[in-house]
């Protein structure tokens, strides 16, 4: 358990990073499949789909992707605002509340709920999640898309095997597990969606709730130990 929980820096704990990344992959796959190939977090893909929608004069496609992109940017900015103005060590706990609320509500919605409303709401929440929890054991990562982690894992493994840099082994393992968790989350989401429909998102929402609660408790215990 000590390898999964960082008692000195709880926000960088492997356990929280893996749970959030699994949830990020899960929710991104959910919106991609359910909402006409619109991604809630992978904005590189959305920009490509936005360009294609423009070329094909697909107005709704443009609205969906542009809404997701704008909401994601606003979510990132909101984390900076909260961090600057919330005079508490628990600001990251607050940053996970939007995706928890959005996920809980989406599970209650009908299947034909408009994508142009649902996806931006999810994008906003995931952006706040990714900005609030952005490190695993001191290494920068992203919990809601994985292309950067794939690159970093490949580079670290190459440095370890070909240049015998032993310090890169742990780096490579961290990024590799991040990629695996994101992939597994996306696969499970795709498999469950036909059966549970909108309620599928509750699985990821529950895991984020577990992460947020555990982080809060771990941070509280750390503060209590420092006081003693």
From TrEMBL:
Membrane spanning stretches: 15-33, 40-60, 66-86, 93-110, 172-195, 201-220
Keyword Chaperone carried by entry: no
Pfam family, one: DUF1275
Entry-linked InterPro entries: DUF1275 (IPR010699)
Keyword Transmembrane helix: yes
Keywords: Membrane, Transmembrane, Transmembrane helix
Protein name (database record): DUF1275 domain-containing protein
UniProt source species: Limosilactobacillus walteri
């Amino acid at each position: 358990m000590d390898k999964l929980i960082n008692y000195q820096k709880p926000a960088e704990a492997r356990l929280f990073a893996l749970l959030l990344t699994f949830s990020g992959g899960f929710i991104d796959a959910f919106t991609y499949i359910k909402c006409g190939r619109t991604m809630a977090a992978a904005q590189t893909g959305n920009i490509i789909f936005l360009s294609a929608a423009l070329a094909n004069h697909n107005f709704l496609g443009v609205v969906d992707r542009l809404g997701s992109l704008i909401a994601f940017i606003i979510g990132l900015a909101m984390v900076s605002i909260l961090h600057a103005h919330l005079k508490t060590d628990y600001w990251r706990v607050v940053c996970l509340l939007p995706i928890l609320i959005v996920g809980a509500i989406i599970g209650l919605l009908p299947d034909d709920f408009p994508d142009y409303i649902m996806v931006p709401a999810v994008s906003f929440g995931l952006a706040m999640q990714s900005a609030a929890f952005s490190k695993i054991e001191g290494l920068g990562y992203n919990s809601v898309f994985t292309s950067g982690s794939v690159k970093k894992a490949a580079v670290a493994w190459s440095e370890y095997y070909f240049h015998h840099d032993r310090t890169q082994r742990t780096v490579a393992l961290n990024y590799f597990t991040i990629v695996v968790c994101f992939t597994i989350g996306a696969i499970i989401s795709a498999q469950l969606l036909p059966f549970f429909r909108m309620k599928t998102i509750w699985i990821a929402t529950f895991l984020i709730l577990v992460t947020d609660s555990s982080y809060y408790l771990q941070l509280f215990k750390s503060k209590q130990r420092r006081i003693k």
